[in-house]
Amino acid sequence: MRRLLLLFFFSGFLLSASAQMWNGADTLFGNEWIQYDQQYFKVMVAEDGVYRIPYETLQSSGIPVNAIDGSRYQLWRLGEEQPLYVTQNGPLGPGDFIEFYGRRNRSELDRYLFRDPDNQMVNPWYSLITDTSAYFLTWVEPGEPTLRYEQVDNSLVNLPAKEEWIWEEREQYFIGQVAKTYEVLSGVDIYYSHFDGEGFASSPQTSRTFFVNCPDVYTGGPPAELDLRFISNANTAGHALEVRIDDELLVEEQFSGALFKKFLFDRAASSLGDSLKVRVSGLNNNDKYAVGGAILHYPRIPVLNAGGFNRFILPEGSGPRYLEMEGAGISGAAVLLDLSNRRRLALQQEGNLWKAKLPAATGEQQLAISSVFHTIESLDPVDFIDYENTDADFLIISNARLFDDGQGNNWVEEYANYRRSEAGGNYAVAVVEVQQLYDQFAYGVNRHPLSIRNFAHYAVRNWPSPRYCFIIGKGQEYPGMRRGGLVAAVADGRMMVPSFGTPASDNLLLSDNYTSIPVIPVGRLAATDGKKVKIYLDKVQAVEANRANPQSVEGRAWMKRVIHLGGGSSANEQTSIRFVLEAMGGEIENNAFGGVVRSFYKTSTDPIQTSLSEQIFGAINEGSSIVTFMGHSSPGTFDFNIDNPDNYNNYGKYPLMLSLGCYSGNIFTSGESIGERFIFYENRAAVAFGASRGVGVISSLGAFARGFYDYMGGDYYGQGIGDGIRAALADYDQNPYIGTATLVEQFTLQGDPSIRLNPAPG
């Protein structure tokens, strides 16, 4: 059974998923290929084909073409040098060009998001992030070797017998929505953030029939192979799966749960028609499957497709090879690129036949034929910054669009300057623009979460003592970005810095595939413009200035106050929540923090209780270090009616708000979450907001929060809130219970992780 697929042309270094990117010999961060003393120009490619960079484009981009021999140009993709055909070995002039084979982005980089990509990717034919690949053009010193296609004379003399067949690959995949495995807990669908059985797919249906085209089958060839992938829903009654190929029943399985399924089928070439019928079906309306797609690898008569571009595999043979291909649908000069052996030749045409004699080669030959050439009209210069020797303990990752508030002010840099100051903690701060990370640590694939993950691990390995990562900029979950929402999201600021997965997780953004704990504490400010960064900077400066003013016991008493808000929709739920909060109160009152807890508990079964609002606002306005809510929540609401900015008057006494409920940590939407509102209320409300992006379970939330209280009054007393959050989550890393495991992944800190909870003895 064959396993070599055209899909992964020249991606041999992408062998397995690990932390970070394991190539079979070493751990890669993504920047190993960069020579920081060289100039680079980026070329974006979103379609497979043969591309040409004309002399005129090189010249208009600022490349000193008259001083660079054609033999010195070099091209990179995914950290690997790409072969080029250059019309001149000396300096290029009018009419000259650089030619290369370009591929759109698929799943080469996405693979590293999965522990076992070959058995977890629902749709490897369609990237989770973007179709667009990045190629980087540079030039080397004279005499240094570069990869080139050898120009071969296509002399049609002493021809061997023509090849009867080639390997063709046809795919049929679906992109209607994201499908992923999940579990059902008390009737609620719960999703992990890590990638395990996930990808774009069809909508789930009880039965789906589709066809994979396979024209011009060579019926005397070896068997074809079909790779089929899909995900079942979490049908509690179980699944009765059937898979039929051309109406032949090949799979009958009974199982339960939402699972990823992958099947490989051999089909006799003689049994194939012009298309292959695939049917995936279940027992009833509750037994559903979302199909990622299928790819068929089959022997084909050598025929060139209309459209001007073809790629296929010539099976292994001996001696010179002769191809004679029908191709009425192509016209003009056609070029053949032997991608396996880096050879190039011009096809000869005789009527509707296109002919090529290939030199002898070992193994299979991956070939691309094109009579259409994509012209690159512009090149984008890239100035790589070498971060290896950066001596920073405070990392800010942001977007250049936030570096100007519209009036020439860069509040991101001002935030960094504050943290560098004595009042701000005397940190060594590095501000890193996210495009640098895309280009250096994700091979130029824009918005890919591996860019930040790889960089975080790179910083931990190379910098002396990184302590905190503060992401400044709102993010979006990848499904909406991939399906047409990108332009709008970028325009209104909703996509500044990506997160990881869906539900989105900043913890996983800085972790690896085998833990949910970030390598350093992380927080995010979901700013969509520079003005919001200033609002937050002003609040941080005000609350931290209050640590030394006033010095009286009465004036500083608020710093030890902790407010508990207990919700719930039923009497039993309210009792359980009260029990958890009282245990937490005992923790914070009896450790080094020395807190004084004031509690408010919901007593009605109304969705939102308003009767206590005035008392709660009064307590918050007197000042507190922590306000902890436990109960029902959503991205926009709590059980308590406390989301009215006009009722807040707590300037300089902004607390950390902990929301122990469902979804209130979801800052990755097109709207503004409740946490974002508390953070961006000017001169009032909260300075940090911690909550889960996903479903909350009382026992899991309580255990985590009690651990956080313990650490903030114990091992991490006087340290940043991010330290306490990270430590409390780490206690439950690898926990098998899904309510706890998803909390560890999805708990999100909005705000600076270095903020301290007024560390004065209680």
Give the secondary structure arrangement, pairings included.
Elements: E1 16-18, E2 20-22, E3 27-28, E4 40-45, E5 49-54, H1 55-60, E6 73-77, E7 80-82, E8 85-86, E9 97-102, E10 133-139, E11 150-151, E12 166-173, E13 177-180, E14 183-185, E15 188-190, E16 198-201, E17 207-213, E18 224-232, E19 239-245, E20 248-255, E21 260-267, E22 275-281, E23 289-300, E24 309-314, E25 321-326, E26 335-338, E27 343-346, E28 348-350, E29 353-358, E30 365-370, E31 373-375, E32 380-382, E33 394-398, H2 411-420, E34 429-433, H3 434-441, H4 450-462, E35 468-472, H5 478-491, H6 506-509, E36 522-525, H7 530-545, H8 553-556, E37 561-566, H9 571-589, E38 596-601, H10 613-622, E39 626-630, E40 656-660, H11 674-680, E41 688-692, H12 698-712, H13 721-730, H14 738-746, E42 747-750
Parallel strand pairs: 5-31, 11-27, 33-34, 33-35, 35-36, 37-38, 37-39, 39-40, 40-41
Antiparallel strand pairs: 1-2, 2-3, 4-10, 4-32, 5-9, 6-7, 6-10, 8-9, 12-23, 13-16, 14-15, 17-22, 18-21, 18-23, 19-20, 19-22, 24-30, 25-29, 26-27, 26-30, 28-29, 41-42
Helix pairs in contact: 2-7, 3-4, 9-12, 12-13
